[in-house]
Give the backbone structure.
Amino acid sequence: MAAQQTWYWPEFKKSPLVGLIRKEKMKQLAVNQGKTDRRAQSNGSNAAKAVVRRNTKEVQSRGNFEVFDELFADNFVDHTPQPNMTPDKAGVRQLYRYIREAFPDFHAEIHFQLADGDRVTTYKTYYGTHQGTLFGVAPTHRKIRFESVDVMRVRDGKITDHWGVGNLLSLMRQISGWIPAAEATNEESPKTPATIEFANPSHGRAVRSRNLQKEPDEYPRERLA
């Protein structure tokens, strides 16, 4: 039997069947590698979401700034900084403290998160009670809520970048922080976008923004709950 195996093996290696077997093995290796890559990417995205969730729950909602220092990279960049805040780690720390002073019970509810590689998008609603000065507005002791969508990049377990938008108009309306501009003059068209003024936290002045297409009373009241 050993002689027969030695006789047929060289011929068998040259047969088309061996080529097919090799191709199938290569395909399976590629499939397995693709599964491994997707699994690694999924694990990385889940880890990034966990970092962002931890920041929302422990830092923003509980004021744990030891965790803040742990989660944010020293070279962090805020691509959409708030007025009078620096676009770096120190600026975000200042913003978080400023908000907690205005809303001691400030907390967030995460509705959903989506991850694309190292970037995590989070849609959430913030809640709190207005107990401290915010943007020049004295405490009203009102309950507030407003929505926010932000994107954070996470690399090596650290938050390195941030982009975000928040419904600050809703927040300012809830604490009576907006001031309608003077009544339109005869020269102004009734359709001219409304002008809204917000108090400036640094200078105590009002900052005027002409970016609304409706008068304030036209906005739905249920959003102020």
